[in-house]
UniProtKB/TrEMBL annotation, chains A, B:
Its cofactor is FMN; Mg(2+). It comes from Conyzicola nivalis. Binds 1 FMN per subunit. GO terms for molecular function: phosphopantothenate--cysteine ligase activity; phosphopantothenoylcysteine decarboxylase activity. CTP binds at D110, K120, P138, D139, I140, L141, F157, K175, K179. Pathway: Cofactor biosynthesis; coenzyme A biosynthesis; CoA from (R)-pantothenate: step 2/5; Cofactor biosynthesis; coenzyme A biosynthesis; CoA from (R)-pantothenate: step 3/5. This is Coenzyme A biosynthesis bifunctional protein CoaBC.
Length: 231, 231
């Protein structure tokens, strides 16, 4: 329509020709056919990055984990749906082989149940308590960074529940050093912040731990600031 | 608009004056501020019952647990949002005190973590495995049935992962006897069935274990068949 056409004219195509993979949403690890361990992530921030990148000329693959919001796929925006962390790892690893940039915005479950019950766990059989053993999932961000192609840019996300900016930065600097990513987007989350909201507030650090960007606002405007780092 | 007005004319007001509480969605039990144990329920079936009941003249309170779909509240449809099983129990118990019918369509977590971590559990601190102890949640359906007002009708739901109709009926008959509800709506669910889909297939048994209704189709048409039992 007219608004879209006008926006298309004014949006600079400064990511033209770049192949960008974006993960979004939160992975779910099944306990049985009806229960799972999930992450509180609507996928809105990752989706805004994917849509924003496509609007700026990039060819985008969006790997979406249980998205609560949906992207309209187009020639410039391919969508791959996944649910578990292992499925997300397989999809993003495959897509990364042909990508210039990988943005890991999805909230990935660090642990999954050691075993998945084939039928619904019945509480009358289980008794008053249930012991669950969880095992560690692969570290997808570190894996992508370790397998990085020449010139490929790897962007990670860290959602931390800390009280202040200095604690957030300290956690972020330790994390990017450990993971080997090029940029890490930090945001503070709590019981009510960051997830499933329309706005966000972030700090981006580079591999040296320096702050290279800060942004607050709608998830669309925050996405634009993150994408500015890739131009 | 015209379609709504026409539908309003042809929909019989056969639930006029009835006060109906409907729970919908799936409860989430937090492990920490970002992780939870969830149930695969979109809330669509419960929502269809709530909307259908209001259209047929009932005054409806919808207790929605993490609904992926949303109802437009109106004079005849009040919406209360909850997340955990304990929150759902408090909301449905309060609403039931003034209700003629309670329909427990929500998928309720049988267990919750014994303790909730105040900050995000860090995998570099935890190591390769994580042991979780879950404790049993209250049995809301049995509680409602036990506290039933004179003439109040209690409708439960049972989503079972069994292979055939006879197994489903046997589980359902044992469950309604145990819970003390008036009707139990049974449906078979699996990795791909029943949840988050647009259609559903159900069998309803009464407190004697007799089949009183069977329906397959859209969640709206299945809702209508369940509501027929209340007229």
């Amino acid at each position: 329509d007219i608004v879209e056409a006008a926006l298309a004219v004014v949006t600079p195509k400064d990511l033209l020709g770049r192949r960008i993979v974006v993960t979004a949403g939160g992975t779910r690890e099944p306990l049985d056919p009806v229960r799972y361990i999930g992450n509180r992530s609507s996928g809105k921030q990752g989706l805004a990055i994917a849509v924003g990148a496509a609007a700026r000329g990039a060819t985008v693959t969006l790997v979406g984990a249980n998205l609560e919001v949906h992207a309209a796929a187009s020639d410039d925006l391919h969508v791959v749906h996944v649910s578990t962390t292992l499925e997300l790892e397989a999809a993003v690893t495959a897509a990364a082989a042909e990508a210039d940039v990988v943005v890991m915005a999805a909230a990935v479950a660090d642990y999954r149940p050691e075993s998945v019950a084939p039928a619904k766990i019945k509480k009358d059989v289980q008794g008053d308590t249930l012991q669950l053993t969880l095992v560690k999932n692969p570290d997808i961000l570190a894996g992508l960074a370790g397998a990085r192609r020449d010139g490929q840019v790897i962007v990670g996300f860290a959602a931390e529940t800390v009280d202040d900016r200095e604690q957030l930065l300290a956690l972020g600097r330790a994390k990017i050093a450990r993971k080997g990513a090029d940029y890490l987007v930090l945001n503070r989350v709590g019981w009510t912040e960051g997830f499933a909201t329309e706005s966000n507030s972030i700090i981006v650090v580079n591999s040296a731990g320096d702050i290279v960007s800060e942004a607050s606002g709608t998830k669309t405007s925050v996405a634009a600031r993150i994408l500015d780092l890739l131009t």
